[in-house]
Amino acid sequence: MDDYPLLNLFWTMLWLFLWIMWFFLLFKVVTDVFRDHELGGWGKAGWLVLVLLLPYLGVLVYLIVRGKSMGLREAKQAKEHEAAFKAYVQQAAGGGGGSADELHKLSALKDKGDITQEEFDRAKAKILA
């Protein structure tokens, strides 16, 4: 380790970090190209050719030209995923109260005299089944 000074180690770590960040950015741009539904096939092919053949220039141009819409697409996808997750949780939980709400409505109908006790018992058994 005597022939590799500490400053060189820091420079090596910096370049490794920048190299990893570069690949992260490159993959982010490529996935954004495929995520954009408004961009046609030729547009996607053109951006991919530019990004893959001239990677540094291609990514820089892509970020300058489409950087703002890239963030909007990312936010839109996050909102869609959140809405889908909330819908799944509500569906899995029984649709917002489910059987408890139905039992409460049945009890109110029985108390008003709209249904008899045996109709209440049958409906209650059906809900709880």
Comma- or semicolon-separated keywords:
single chain; 129 residues; mainly alpha; 5 helices; elongated
Morphology = elongated
Q: Low-confidence segments, ≥5 residues, pLDDT <50?
A: none
Sheet of most strands: none
- Report the count of strand segments: 0
Question: Helix/strand-derived class?
Answer: mainly alpha
> What's the SSE pattern?
HHHHH
Strand proportion, as a percent range, falls in under 5%
What's the alpha carbon Rg, rounded to whole Å?
29 Å
Helix content: over 70%
Q: Enumerate how many helices there are, as a single number.
A: 5
What is the average of the pLDDT values?
Answer: 87
Distance between the termini: 73 Å
Give a summary of the structure in a few sentences:
Helices cover 84% and strands 0% of the residues. The chain is an all-alpha fold and 129 residues long. Helix 1 crosses helix 3, helix 2 crosses helix 3 and helix 4 runs antiparallel to helix 5.
3D structure, described in words:
By secondary structure, the protein is mainly alpha-helical. The protein contains five helices and no strands. The protein has helices spanning 6-35, 41-53, 55-93, 99-112, 117-128. It is elongated. The chain starts with 5 loop residues before the first helix and ends with a helix.
Helix-strand layout with pairing:
Elements lengths: L5 H30 L5 H13 L1 H39 L5 H14 L4 H12 L1
